[in-house]
Every structure is written in structure tokens, then in C-alpha cells.
User: What shape does this take?
Amino acid sequence: MSGKPFFYRESESIRVTVRPAYLRDHSDPSQSHYVFAYFVRIENVGELAAQLLTRRWLIHDSLGEGVDTEVIGEGVVGEQPTITPGSVHEYQSFCILKSGEGYMEGHYGFLRQDGTSFEAAIPRFTLSATESTSLPS
Assistant: This one.
């Protein structure tokens, strides 16, 4: 993930790093259709294995409709990975905004090997058609 803008946050011994990118070739600004990819790296820097069970995202579109989109679900991209100490899980996904500017943030729900549950924060990251790395389709 080096050389490109990224955002990270560590909580509960889980380090979450996100790198967003504007997908210019999939977007159509004349139709208020802006597509962003985001690449996520989840690293267990703790001493116990933990399984990612749920996700909660808040997606803010700067269009100003006053309501953020909330996405709650199981796992990430169809998986509920167990991440052992020192290990990493990576995935990529996307979102569509009506404007070229916004942000996302949220948390993952985990269950530790010892049976305790916790939430790991996802850092707030910006989605910008003008400032983020643009990727062709």
C-alpha cells in the first residue's frame, strides 16, 4: 500500500488500514455517479486469534441530503475470517456516491479465541474524485 494515500487506526489489538481510490472509468459525473474502490488490510497485532463476524459502515456523501448511509452485515465480502496473531486479512470493495466527495468509517465486530467480543474501529477515510488516486477500470 505504499506510495498512495492510506488511513489507519489501531484498536483492541486490531490494526485496520484503508486505501481508497476513485474509479474514473466506472464513474459518470454527468449522472451524479461516482464509484470508489477501497482496499482494506486488517492485521491482528494482539496475542489471541480473533474472528471477524460483522461490519458496520457509515457512508457520507457530501451531496448534503442530511442522512448518511448505514451498512450493517455479516463478515466482509462473504467471509468471516479468523485472524491469528501476526496475521493479516486483506480484501477490496467499492461504494457509489452521488457526489465526488465523501467519507466512510465504521467498525468490525470480532470474537476472540477466549470468547470475548469486541469492536475494532475502521478509520474515517476520505473519498475524493479530485484528490484520491484514480484507477482505470
